[in-house]
Predict the structure.
Amino acid sequence: MDMPSETLICSGLVERIGYKNATISYKTNGENLQQTHHIETHSQGLERVVELLLDPKKGVITHTNEIKVVGHRVVHGGNSFSDTTLITTEVKDKIQEYAALAPLHNPGNLEGILVAEEIFPSAKQVAIFDTAFHQTIPEKAKRYAIPTSLYEENGIQVYGFHGTSHQYVSEKAIAYLGKESSKIITIHLGNGCSMTAVKDGKSIDHSLGFTPSNGLIMGTRSGDIDHAIIFHMVNNLGYTLDNVKTLLTNQSGMLGLTGHVDLRDIQAEAENGNKDCQLALSMNAYRIKKYIGAYAAAMNGLDAIVFTAGIGENSSVIRQLVCEDMEVFGLNLGTTKNNKRSGDLREINTTASKVKILVIPTNEELEIAKQAYELVT
Ligand code: AMP
């Protein structure tokens, strides 16, 4: 990204790290390629990315010192970071410390930082925290009904995540609606899934909590679960606490229900009549519906809902399942509009719908580049 012009020079994605068929997609003006590799770790993925960036034919830089700033999305900043920050040894220690609260993310984020420091030694490294946008959640929504000392002394509260994405798409939605005073629910459905109630541009409630485990059904995470199940598994079913943690974080969600983690595979199986996959899709959508109801109540109204991220932007099936039978909330989906594919902001409700249903491609990279650039200049 060339800043401050916001010109996109090159983009790419490494997906399915740790699985046999990891893919790298890489796009510049002259190239648009997709490669399949065996990529075990985040650092291997980043090393392959840098090989592409430096490639004499496909690359966009001739030396790594041309990169001046590297912006890192970091999931958990706890109460230590409410703003974008330059990465120092102390910042890395904190990210490591918060890995206990975001075991799927902070270790990978830190690995990315360490590899980037090695590969781009002359660049400034900047961290943008997912928790920052949710600092406005009021106490009645961010507190858990447990003894107050655990909040005051141990920081046990809702932190919220996917902040850069919810902030980016809610700002786009407000601009589209053309009114500052608005009630919007942003629905981020990717590998991780979350929803935010955004009132007048501010996050007032959010489905992920103390860690990115709560709320919606995700790729490998269960989302909402009765915590007494954990005690039952440990006390009566022979699980250790570590087993339960691994099970709820890495083996549950859509993977636990279907054996697949990627929604594209689950949709294809469901179409072929696989009952587990059909049920998992219904469960996934049902959970989202319940949060729409909750957040419409929290805001005493609703102007728009926004679908974003890999699933939200691409899965007409999930959007259809979420929006059907929701007339009570003023939602009326336009089937043809929903099925149309496009990479742009689009409205997919019927003209009769009281509430706008929007698909807004998230652009966390741009938001990160903007915030990182602002910090270092
Ligand atoms: P994200 O975390 O936003 O990159 O989203 C990644 C997830 O989006 C993948 O694991 C897939 O489950 C899902 N996804 C990506 N493309 C599609 C698609 N065309 N249809 C359905 N789901 C998709």
Observations:
- The pocket of adenosine monophosphate is lined by residues 190-191, 219, 262-264, 309-311, 314-315 (CB under 6 Å).
- The chain is about 40% helix and 15% strand.
- The domain at 179-364 is CATH 3.30.420.40 (Nucleotidyltransferase; domain 5).
- The two ends are 15 Å apart (CA to CA).
